[in-house]
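Milestone 3.1: sequence recovery, worked example.
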């Protein structure tokens, strides 16, 4: 049971993208292994929301 993934509803996350929040000085920004990145933010929470929005976006940015 511990290895089962939780069921999700709504828009499926893009499994081919891996995002992370990186800190540089007093700024944080989200980046993805696909090359996407968000603008620098002073709020870690906003950077996390940027990453979550990228993961939830069903359309590729290409």
């Amino acid at each position: 049971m511990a290895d089962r993934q939780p069921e999700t509803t709504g828009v499926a996350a893009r499994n081919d993208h891996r995002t992370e929040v990186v800190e540089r000085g007093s700024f944080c920004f989200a980046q993805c292994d696909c090359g996407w990145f968000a603008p620098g933010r002073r709020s870690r929470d906003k950077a996390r929301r940027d990453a979550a929005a990228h993961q939830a976006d069903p359309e590729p940015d290409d």
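The mean pLDDT is 80. The radius of gyration is 13 Å.
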